[in-house]
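Subject — a protein and its fold

Tokens — whole-number codes for backbone shape
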Amino acid sequence: MADPGSRCLLAISCRAVKDGFTDVGCEAVTNSTPIRPYKIGLPQWHHDKWYAPDHRKDDSLSAYSKHFSSVEGNNTFYGLPSELTIKQWALQTPDDYQFCFKFPRSISHSGQLLACEYLAKEFLERIAPLEHRIGIVWLQLSQEFSPAQLSSLSTFLARLPKHLKYGVEVRNKHFFNKGQDEKTLNQILIQHQANRVIFDTRCLFANYADDPDTIAAFNDKPKVPTHVIATADNPLVRFMGPHDPALSYQALLPWVNKTLQWVDEGKTPYLFFHTPGNEHAPELARWFSEQIHQQRPEIPAITLWNRQPKQTELW
């Protein structure tokens, strides 16, 4: 009997879109972010409390991409962006910017990687116009996705186009027991050159607070062990700490060292920083990049945008 996962992703290919990124109502961004041997970003590019009071929401991606080299791209988890939106995103970002899109939940959750050929093909073709701006395309699997379904994961990964980079985040406790289930998972990821996504929430859960954002994070985020492994060339680390960035500093220092180790091994790691509600995530990311810069002065730290309103010229 055929593996049920074989119904999924048969002969998927990403069709290049022939029309250019023009006539979408905004100017192309041609500058690039400072060269760093790692990618750094946040879970989103807009937050009401990040920018100056007179900031226009439509300008957020352009402003964000001048300071950060990547973003998690969680919006595709909930639905496909329009073709026009994809073109606008390309125009608003530098050439070396990287979107790390999630596969839609219709594939990873409700679809459980089965009978999803059309959905996966539609998703990959939709984001294809971003071309070199596509970073790691990743699956966030639910807690219900169990070791019994690993054959479906292997089939899914085997049928994906080879020119893209992929990642997989698991949340089922059996994948963190250092037993055969976890070994099999890691072997599958290594075989298909897919990066195991590491979600480090230890610092969050060590610092409880009773504000709504922290309570929501405690209810929503996985409390699983942090197993540090690079199964491919682009380790993806998601770090979540409490509101106060200073409470995360000690927990981040090992990640500074690990990032530099990966860089020395020729890998290009991706690091994304979260806080409850994400208001303080930019400061957390900046501190991390400053620690990298202290150890390697040739690697520039990130800067953040000006939060002050623009001055109006009177004459």
Summary: The chain has one domain: 33-295. Residues 1-30, 311-315 have pLDDT under 50 and may be disordered. Residues 176 and 225 are 6 Å apart (CA to CA). The beta strands are 39-42, 70-71, 98-99, 136-140, 165-169, 194-200, 236-240, 270-274.
